[in-house]
Design brief:
The chain has about 80 residues and is mainly alpha-helical. The chain has helices spanning about 20-30, 35-40, 40-60, 65-80; strands spanning about 1-5, 10-15.
């Protein structure tokens, strides 16, 4: 639901979702990132895997690169660029 457009033509949105009933309000209170990550739905796992693969491809790494190796490669890259 939008509140119209701002001066630059971008849509303005409500500050928060307003529940239509007390039951909806109770369900909305349970919608937190903590609960979402604890539930670990398959679509979220698939999204993380796709993002990981895209980042690996952008750096020219194997899609199955481990976290430690990726962090080491990033540190090496940053050091070579004089960032640190």
């Amino acid at each position: 639901m939008t509140l119209g457009d701002d001066r630059l033509g971008r849509p303005r949105y409500t500050a928060r979702t307003v529940p239509r009933s007390e039951e909806a309000a109770q369900q909305l209170r349970k919608r937190t990132l903590i609960n979402l990550y604890n539930a670990h739905p398959q679509w979220l796992a698939n999204g993380h895997a796709a993002l990981d693969a895209s980042v690996a491809a952008a750096y020219g790494w194997d899609a199955e690169i481990g976290e430690e190796e990726a962090l080491g490669d990033l540190l090496e890259l940053n050091l070579s660029m004089g960032i640190w």
